[in-house]
Amino acid sequence: MSAAFTASAPSPAGTSPVLQAQPLGPLWPTLDPFLFCAHHDDAYPAGDGAFAPAVPLEGRQIGSDFSRKDGWSMYHGDTVPGFPGHPHRGFETVTLVRKGLIDHADSLGAAARFGGGDVQWVTAGRGIQHSEMFPLLDASAPNPLELFQIWLNLPARSKMVEPHFTMLWNERIPRLVHHDADGRATTVTVVAGALPGAGAPLPPPPESWASQPEGDVAIWTLHLAPGARWTLPAAGGQGTRRMLYWFAGQGLQLGGAALPGHAAYEMVAAHDWELVNTGSTAVECLLLQGRPIGEPVAQYGPFVMNTQQEIMQAMMDYRRTQFGGWPWPESDPVHGPEPRRFARYPGQTVEELPTPAPAA
Fold first, then answer.
1. Pirin N-terminal domain: which residues (predicted)?
2. Do 158 and 183 belong together in one domain?
3. How far apart are CA 89 and CA 324, in angstroms?
4. What span, in angstroms and rounded, lies between the C-alpha atoms of 201 and 193?
5. 166, 346 contact by CB (below 8 A)
6. Residue 131: is its pLDDT beyond 70?
7. Of 242, 272, 295, which residue sits at a domain end?
8. Full DSSP string of 154-194
9. N or C: at which end does the chain have fewer Cβ atoms within 10 angstroms?
10. Lowest pLDDT segment from 10-14, 135-139, 179-183, 312-316
11. CATH code where residue 257 lies
């Protein structure tokens, strides 16, 4: 779809709601303080009883399969799809699972199986290894998986903090359900940031930019029923930037202007804007917002620091320490055949959640 933007109605004080529009490719464009946003939507087939696809894998570059052949990829998995053990330093990963289940394991000794609206938030800080595997538990039916993975930068003062592992369970995540004058519903799921009417936000990890009042970070998903109208309130922070990713649905107006198609739209954050679903199917969007950290970014793969010298140090530290080592017998641990949702935190504290997860 075209990413051109043309206004069809006046906006507050004559302001256009959209500053720029960019297409949604394999990796979605981001604004500081965000580094990376990926939308994985994989139509995995039935499993083979050992968590792998019950279909031939010929024609895939096993170990680095991003082909989306038949609607899904193996990624870096060689038996089970996913991302076996790999390191990070200097930023955070926020993983929102919309469908399916993910198995997490890390160098802190933490483990989890989560999905169906759950969110995992990991502060890599000075260094962590983790794996993210997508076990195909159902051997008699397809195993669809859909998730967002977002990388949120850390300011220089926090890049070498201790790693931190947090689970935000679907049942506890605040939501705003708004019915317009015609009774049509808009649901906003509030992973981070305050939204009037949604209840108190869950606390992000303590060293996160999202925990700093000046950060003004918000991570929301929006679901507008056909015909629904909802006013997105202005951001609270001066200098905050806001990106709206429209990725599902047929028609969307923003501030009285028809958006031309699915794209990443940087918005004017200082105004309220009315969103209207003009199509016959639900509209879905992801919103990422934050005040820029405004520091130099040096990145080499899974390491994000402020200078190239710090990147070299990260590589040397990883070779020397393995960021605490890998306490698992495999690089791609899978946590058994039961579709249970749980988290085992460092120190062995365990949370068990109802299975299956309520609808996200």
1. 77-152
2. no
3. 12
4. 6
5. no
6. yes
7. 295
8. --GGGTTSPPEEEEE-GGGS-EEEEE-TT--EEEEEEEES-
9. N
10. 10-14
11. 2.60.120.10
Cα–Cα nearest to 83, from 147, 28, 134: 134
Whether residue 147 is found in the same domain as residue 157:
yes
Average pLDDT value for residue range 309-320: 98
Q: What is the pLDDT of residues 143-171, one digit of tens each?
A: 999 999 999 999 999 999 999 999 999 99
Please write the tens of the pLDDT for every residue from 6-41: 333 345 556 789 999 999 999 999 999 999 999 999
What's the mean pLDDT in 71-77? 98
**How many residues in the chain?**
360
Q: Which helix (H) or strand (E) holds 312?
A: helix 308-321
179 has which bridge partners? 185
Tokens matching residue 224: 């507008």
Exposure string for 79-104, b = 16+ CB within 10 A, e = fewer: bbbbbbbebbbbbbbbbbbbbbbbbb
Coil, strand or helix: which one is 320?
helix
Whole-structure pTM value: 0.94
Report residue 285: phi and psi, to 5°: -140, 155
